[in-house]
Amino acid sequence: MSARIADLLSEGMKVLGAAGIEAPGREARLLLAIAAKVPPAVMIGFPERPVDDSGVAGYRELVRRRADREPVSHLTGEREFWSLPFFVSRDVLDPRPDSEALIAAVLGEVGDRGADLRILDLGTGSGCLLLTLLRELPNALGWAIDLSAAALAIAGRNAARLGLGDRVAFREGAWTAALTAADPATFDLIVSNPPYIPSGDIAGLAPEVARHEPRLALDGGMDGLEAYRGLAPLLWRHLAPDGLVALEIGLGQAESVSELMTAAGLVPAGRARDLAGRERCLLFRRP
């Protein structure tokens, strides 16, 4: 049955607050706007207005899911990154503002943005890194690799949405083993946001991450460095001379990851910090 806007917001705030949501009022308004298409101005100016049965049912379902700490992006099905819209689901990591540090660092290193670059993205997930770079580098081509077929499906949808479907090839498999004989042997730019959370730390992450994002994309092994150990020799092998590698890293991992890459023959080329001032991206070149 229908219900008033004010009553629904009050109901949602109580449920979300009890679930530990930090701003239950704001999120209740957001969910009502999504489910019942009620503009914020109407919620404020006309709280006595009724919401129809369909809107009430949809709103209560979204409140239930959010109270289970499902990310809002999963409720809407999309997330913004570098001012671009990306489809997301529980099969991919949410694109995060911190990862934009990698994009900015790469663009700062690319001399000619109109060059015919070959870009490889290892563990592409939603495709946010590769597709954003392809938007900024209009003559570049991309190869996106992921172990998850479901993640590649999301990345493919994002490529189509952004008009980049004809400039990217998708490969399912483990790192560079997924490349085919028809693919380039080396690349001008390789990017990766590999799993880097120590296995024992995952349970302590925010519920939105620990319970609703893919463990495959989070779990970096006992010390969080397992993926980097596997990547180091592959990066050297598949990077063109004077090519650039950009790796996202976790808190406190800069020195350890740098040691792994330099031991494989790569040369440090810079570091970038995220919005909180933490080292978030490492750059390397092949001499």
Structure in words:
- This protein has 287 residues and is α/β, with parallel strands linked by helices.
- The chain folds into two domains: 3-68; 78-285, Vaccinia Virus protein VP39 (Rossmann fold, 3-Layer(aba) Sandwich).
- The protein has eleven helices and eleven strands.
- The strands form three sheets. Strands 7-6-5-8-9-11-10 form a seven-stranded mixed sheet, sandwiched between helices.
- A hairpin with a 2-residue loop joins β3 and β4 (84-87).
- α1 packs across α2 (24-36) and α2 packs across α4 (53-67).
- The protein is elongated, with a radius of gyration of 21 Å.
- The model has no long low-confidence stretch (mean pLDDT 96).
| Name of the CATH first level of the largest domain | Alpha Beta
- Structure class: alpha/beta
Helical fraction equals: 25-40%
What does the overall shape look like? elongated
Q: Beta fraction of the residues?
A: 15-25%
Measured between the Cα atoms of the first and last residue, the distance is 69 Å
- Low-pLDDT segments: none
CATH superfamily of the largest domain: Vaccinia Virus protein VP39
Please give the largest β-sheet: 7 strands, mixed
What is shown here, in short?
The protein is of the alpha/beta class and about 290 residues long.
Question: What descriptors fit this protein?
Answer:
287 residues, alpha/beta, Rossmann fold, 2 domains, seven-stranded mixed beta sheet, two-stranded antiparallel sheet, 11 strands, elongated
